[in-house]
Structures are given as structure tokens and as C-alpha cells.
Predict the structure.
Amino acid sequence: MDFSGKQAQEAAPLNGVGRFLHGLFWVVFAILCAVTFLGGLALVPGNLLFFIIALPVFGLIAFWAYRYHGRYFWLYLLGIALITRIVGVLLFHPAPASDFLVQYNAAQSILHGNFSFNKGYYFSSFPYQVGFSFFQALLLHIVNSVWWLRIVNVLLSTGSVWLVYALAQKLTTSRFVAQFAGMAYALSATPIVYNGVLTNNVASTFFTLLSIYLVVQAKHSRFSWAWVLGGGLVLSLSNFLRPDGLALFVAFAAYFVFGLFTPRWRTKLLHLAIIAVAFLGCNAALSGAVSASGLAPAGMKVLDPYWKFATGIELTSNGQYSPRVLERTKAIKQERHLSQRDASKAMMMENIGNLRRAGVGAVARLVVNKQNIFWFGQGGLIFPLTDMQKTHPKLAAWVDQLKTAWMLWIVLFALVALFPLWRKGYDPQLLLVFFIFTFAVVNLVAEVQYRYSFSVQPMWFIMAGIGLEWVLAKQRQRG
């Protein structure tokens, strides 16, 4: 079912080894999706009203995407995205707090040439976070205002909507999929309300989507290597702003590795080498520049790699940030005279022991709960709704429930797309699946927050369009 009047290019055939690995991957991914779906069902009763309300809204979006054949959809889309984001930032603009306040204060220090912030606990333990503070400092050099940072968020978030639309077009050549995915994402509560928060998710998501768009563009160009190179460099910039890049790079690498089992394996091997050199080389250069400048003497390294995992397998907090983990780590550090890194490692091993003693059932519940937090985020809008929770708590709860119901429907539509995507074989659409898979796997063992899924949520929206199109095509055939 192709509303654009174009035919998608045939997927490259996989050889015997490739078909085996492809099938094995889909079995694992299907199990992970089943866990996500079954866990999500448990959230429906608590969000039933908004789950029901959202359905006719999706029906209207799908009807417009089906019926509209004009040339200016992208203008309507950008207009709606911009207006909703302006309204969102006017309604939801809490004062910087938590990590966001630390990063903003560091940006102000950088602006005035003071790098003493890197001696504090946050940047001495997580120096890789300095990239976003440097980005904010560049913006503050233009206009020294929190509202200017929010305006930039609005513009980047609107750009992300266009990229979802454009990427869906490139991946499917379907007007319906592109228009549905773009509009559904434009009206999604999460990217709307987070523009008022000084988070690194908004900017990194824009550059992540841009990197994917450039890599996908390589299939349609004579100079494919140049597009892949550009995608790797942009992905490195996204990683500079928010350290999600390694998981994204693994997804890209997996896509190119599967390409080694097709007749175009030489091209895919070249692309794999190019994106690896571009991404890893640019990361190393940025880290060296950060170290040489004095922003972070250690460079953009992870000096406490065990902390995220110690938190992520904490049973009592469902893998979320926990004061218990923090206090226990401090106690271990003092009792055993360990460094912060070794104390975090000891806490991680202690939590692994707790998981063994708790049994399979408790571990399974932890997995389901973490998937629910990561993808659907019960209470996941805690940062943007800080002020509203104080003044209008019921309205804040409604916004949060609407966000959860919206994502539940999107994931449900997207899961329908698994069958046509599996049958398609080796195709750039496989990138969508790899991105979701790598983030989901990392979420299983690392600290979990709803906003951590921010940059990969657009993949669900494009898959949702593919799933709905497949259903409509089946209905048309029966009719």
C-alpha cells in the first residue's frame, strides 16, 4: 500500500548465514517485544480513559494521512509542531533543577572562563557530560538567558518532527507512513513538554535523527560513502551532547554487519569502516580537545562505569536512581576505604548477589517494570511537570497519563509492523529495529529513566506508520 505512487526498492537478498542470523535476531527481538507488550498491558487499566480518548485522535491522524495528497503537508506539519511546542514551553518551564541545574551552572562558568566546576563530584565522576554544558555556553554567549535555551529547544524539537517525516519517506517511499509518523510525533506529549527543561535529550535527538537520515540517504546516492561519513560525524556530535552514541553506533554497525551477507558486501564493509572511523575518530578528537582546553582534564571518559549498572539492577527501586544505592555506595567507600569507582563496583556485585537470591520471578518482574518505565514512563514527566504538580496536580496527572496512553498505542501499532519488517529482510528499515533493540538491551542492565528512551522513541512512530499501512493494505485486499 503506497500512497506516494512510488515503489520501494527491493531489499538485498541475504545468503544462508545471513538468513540464519537474521532469523535468530528476530526470535530474540520478538521475545523482547512480547515482554514489552505484556508489561504495557498492565498499564492500560490505570490509563484507560486516555487510552480510549487517544484512539479516535489516531483515527483522525490516519484519515488525514490517508486522504491528503497535497504538496504542502510538510508546511502544515511544521506549523502544528511549532505551535504545540511554543504552547508547551509557555505552560511547562520549570526552573533548572537536579542534573540540569548542575549542567546549566557549569555552562555559566564556562561562559565566564571559570573551569573550577570540573572539580566537583558530578563532573569529576562523569566528565563526558561536559559536552552539553559547552553547547549551552555557546548558546548563552549569543543570548545569556534560560529562555533563549528553551527557544533553541523548540526549534530543534520542531526540526526533529520534520526529520521523522523525511526519514519515514526515505525508508518507505510511502506518503501515508511519513504523514502519519510525522503528525503522531508532532502531537506526542513527551517532546512537547520537555522543551522547557534544560535537558540534553532534545538537541541530541535532533542530531541522532539527522545522522540516521544521512546514512539512509546513502542508498539513494552515487556518493554513498560521503553520506555515511556525514552520518558518522553527526552521530559523534549527538554523542558529544548526550552519551547515547555508543548504543546508536552499535545499531548502525549491526546493520552494516548484516550487509556483509548480501551481494553488496564490499560496499557495506566500506561503509562500516567509514562510520567507525568517523564516529570513533571524531569522539577521540572531541575528547582530546575537551582535555586540552581544561574543560575536563580526563577528557570525555566514563570514570565511574559501574554506577549506572549498580543502580540499574537495584530491585527495590526497579533500576531507577535510588538514594539507597547512593548511601550504600558511600558506606562501602568509607568502610573499605575504596575509590568511588571501586565502591560502585562493589555495590554492583552486591546487587548481582541480591538478584541471584531473589530468584527468576523477581528478576522477571524487574525486567517488565524497567521496560514499562523506559518506554511508557509512568510518572516519567516528573521534570517538566514539577510546577504543575504543585499548582494543578490533577491536570499534571492527566498529562502524564495521556503521554503513557499515547506511547502504548504507538508501540501497539509498531508491533504490528514486525511481520512485514521481518519478511522484508535486509533493508534500511531494519535500522529502526536495531535502534530499539540496542536501547532496550542497555535498559535491561543500566539505570533506567523514561527520558533515556527520548532519542529512540521516533523509531516507534515510524514503525507504527508501517504497521497501520500494512493493516490498511490487508483490509483493501479483502475489500
